[in-house]
Amino acid sequence: MEKFRTVLDLHLKHHSALGYGLVSLLTAGGERIFSTAVFQCPCNAAWNLPYGLVFLLVPALALFLLGYVLNARTWRLLTGCCARPGCGGGLRTFVVCAQLSAAAAVAPLTWVAVALLGGTFYECAASGSAFQARRLCPGRDSRCEVQMPLVPCGQAQVPEVQELHKELKAQSQVLGWVLIAVVMIVLLLCTSVTRCLSPVSFLQLKFWKIYLEQEQQILKNQATEHAAELAKENIRCFFESSHPKECNTPSIKDWQQISSLYTYNPKEQYYSMLHKYVNRKEKNQSIRSSQGDAMVPIFGFVDSTGMNTTPSL
Questions:
Q1: How does the record say this protein sits in the membrane (predicted)?
Q2: Vertex 170, ends 167 and 171: CA angle to 5°?
């Protein structure tokens, strides 16, 4: 039991890092399966380039779109957007979209980096490229450009041309390591800048995340109890042909306000939209946009929490 509790505590403390690590691991495993069991380079001058690029980039695009689908902030932003005036524009929406794109890019970048390190997809695509042929073939056998598409399959009849396999693989692996280095540098810089510009301290930020976990858990429990009571009352009235007792349920406007994107105001320290809603000065006051509110990148985790973090489609 103690070991299970230790694992649970580790997950709660580092769930974001573990989630990104698991996504990267699954993506790398998927790429290995594709490259060994599915991918078969046609070794044809007309097909090598498009075939290799499709396997290199299309799965990355699919993973990128999947990252949007599985992010709770996407649906917090889009749900009911068309029914609200002025939705879909402004700096706030741009900032959120940029953060969503950065989070969604983890899996596709992992796919491309692992694929480049393996070299299979790049070798196939590059061997069918006229640009690579013009760059690598000068000074070699006159049949180089014709034989080059056969290199990935090991069918080039000229040994000098077949040796280009090593050069293409080296190019792919260098590009893979460069991509990894660039991503790590950009990630470090962005994390450092957002942390440096944070209006709250390190310990308050940790408390903030603890508060959100507790708020969402209690909200889910209370919502379940309230929904069960409302359902029981409606079913009782249906069978007894009676009128239901009054049951206080938040209005559509109330739900919309606590579901809107979080904005930070240094004059009013609220940890969530629900916290801001219950502390509003006037009952009919809108909490979506107040004077001094700003979209702070480091507080993006506030919108990522929800009663169900994976949306049902």
A1: Multi-pass membrane protein
A2: 90
